[in-house]
Design brief:
Elements (H helix, E strand, L loop, with lengths): L4 H4 L3 H28 L6 H27 L4 H5 L3 H10 L5 H22 L5 H10 L5 H15 L3 H26 L1 H8 L9 H22 L4
């Protein structure tokens, strides 16, 4: 059941939670743009460079959509993003790829898990915000591009599979830890997931099912890359 926007934003607690969600997503998309544009410098061919440049442009377009939504709500986007600068920057510092292939796996596996999590959270916000979140995280062609490049590299050098599988497992651990830290540090987001008297949230059973779905999606992505989850 979706939350009605007209009544939801009259609730200060809900408004704070929605602003937090949009803020963390906006900063996430802004950093994704920066990261993918930087990774393009490592691309082995002009075609790969162009493909990543297109993906970076898509990520920036998503940032603009989220920024504009915050503005429409009367919120300064920079203020909304600020609380998430330190934790997200720390995550990226801890998971800086050492080469082109690790960058691709991070974009597909690490970002994919985070996107899945926020899609789950979007089930508990108003319909307009939810529609925006789902639109932002719709597949933009990244999956096919990454899968093709990683599988081709492993086929050429099978020893890469073990290293990239370890990297993928490290990414999922770091991503889950990051999500838990953000939820713990931001009371509005935690309250959004917990729900209230007139707004359903997640009980322990629902949390268990959510993490099962996240794990299954992660395993499917690793398998698509030809890697052991």
């Amino acid at each position: 059941m979706f939350v009605s926007e007209l009544t939801a934003f009259d609730d200060p607690a809900y408004r704070a939670a929605a602003v937090d969600l949009l803020g963390v997503l906006a900063y996430g998309e802004l950093t994704a743009f920066e990261r993918i544009a930087e990774d393009a410098k490592l691309a082995p061919t002009l075609d790969d460079k162009a493909q990543l440049a297109q993906l970076a442009t898509t990520e920036f377009g998503h940032f603009v959509q989220l920024r504009d939504r915050l503005v429409a709500l009367g919120v300064d986007p920079m203020d909304a993003m600020q609380p998430f600068v330190t934790p997200l920057d720390a995550f990226h510092d801890h998971t800086a790829p050492s080469d082109w292939l690790e960058g691709l796996v991070k974009a597909y596996v690490g970002d994919g898990l985070a996107n899945d999590f926020y899609r789950e959270v979007a089930a508990y916000v108003d319909a307009e915000t939810r529609a925006l979140v789902l639109e932002v995280f719709a597949d933009s062609g990244q999956a096919e591009f990454v899968v093709d490049r990683v599988r081709a590299a492993i086929e050429e050098d099978p020893k890469l599979g073990g290293r990239l599988a370890l990297w993928g497992r490290r990414l999922v651990g770091e991503a889950l830890s990051q999500a838990q830290r953000i939820a713990a540090d931001r009371d509005p987001l935690a309250a959004l997931l917990a729900g209230s008297v007139d707004r359903p949230g997640l009980d322990l059973a629902a949390i268990g099912r959510m993490f099962t779905r996240l794990t299954e999606a992660h395993t499917a992505r690793m398998n698509a890359l030809g890697l052991q989850a």
